[in-house]
Amino acid sequence: MNEIKIASWNINSVRLRIGQIGEFVAEENPDVLCLQEIKCLDHQIPREDLIGFGYPHIEVSGQKGMHGAATISKYPLTRMQTTFCPRDEARHVSTHVHTGKGQDFELHNFYIPAGGDEPDAEVNPKFAHKLEFLDNMTRYFKSRAPENAPMVLVGDFNIAPHENDVWSHKQLLKVVSHTPIEVERLARLQAAHDFTDCARAIAGDDEKHSLFSWWSYRSRDINKSDRGRRLDHIWVSPALRQAAIKQGAHKIHRPCRLWERPSDHAPVTQTLRLSA
Predict the structure, then answer these.
(1) For the chain, where are the alpha helices, taking DSSP H only?
(2) How far is CA 130 from CA 66, 108, 186, 195, 202, in A?
(3) Contact, 76 vs 94, CB < 8 A?
(4) Which helix (H) or strand (E) holds 207?
(5) Which of 67, 108, 156, 197 is flagged as catalytic?
(6) 92 is catalytic
(7) What stretch of H or E contains 197?
(8) Which domains does the chain have, with CATH numbers?
(9) Range from 136-140, 222-226, 235-239 carrying the lowest mean pLDDT
(10) What is the C-alpha to C-alpha distance for residues 194 and 187, in angstroms, rounded to an integer?
(11) Is residue 158 annotated as involved in ligand binding?
């Protein structure tokens, strides 16, 4: 049985936090790291640093000063041509990961739009954009379902779907990221390809605070107030469910959120046990 560790992290500026990336990969040694909100153009990513960390294979979808996603890997990557975003925004990278360990897989790295402040698509174009992006994802993965291809979806989904994915279900029901319409759209996406939410499949529905991956910068002591949300997700297709759902295979690395000048997100990791 061969193991592959995948990490996902909204880094909130790859150039600003390249040192933290180096510290994280030195500690956790993921085989593949998916970054979101890199906030730079393709040629501006600190490629030499990433290669120096042991990741020579790099695929980037960059944008000046905002958004952006990058997948860096120890193993070769082949870029897939996919389009999900109805605007000219860099929000995803899709690749084939060639592990050389008996089972290659598709890796889809997403930075789903946050959606603004008002959860009403008629008055808030940002929220309408978020729902349209989710609908595009749903159509694509539904069309791919008959293939039964091994797929991993990761990223900052900007939705906390379960009542225990937020610090207060009642207080956040009308707050973007936890509204019923967002939860329903994400559930529709998950059902379109029968994806498994690795964190919930392993931890169960009752687990709460230990699964949070995001805390506002306004929270000075996240461990004291712990007003977090689970916005960062790793899903697998049916072909990889057995490889993913093992106790201890999914982790949220909360200590990274306590580093000096951190991202407001903690990285999450998922280990796959692949059959040769």
Answers:
(1) 18-28, 47-52, 125-144, 180-192, 198-203, 222-225, 241-244
(2) 16, 17, 11, 20, 28
(3) no
(4) none
(5) 156
(6) no
(7) strand 196-197
(8) 2-274 (3.60.10.10)
(9) 222-226
(10) 10
(11) yes
- Biggest CA–CA distance in the chain, Å, is 52
**Average model confidence (pLDDT) for the chain?**
96
Return the SS3 of 267: coil
Which residue type is seen at 166? V
Taking residues 231-236, report their average pLDDT: 99
What is the side-by-side strand order in the sheet with 2-10? Answer: 57-61, 69-73, 32-36, 2-10, 268-274, 250-252
Mean pLDDT, residues 62-75: 97
Evaluate if residue 30 carries a pLDDT over 70: yes
Is 265 catalytic? The answer is: yes
Beta bridge partners of 117: none
> Would you say 96 and 271 are in contact if contact means Cβ atoms under 8 Å apart?
no
Let me know if 75 is a catalytic residue: no
Indicate the pLDDT class of residue 86, thresholds 50, 70 and 90: low
* pLDDT (0 to 100) of residue 157: 99
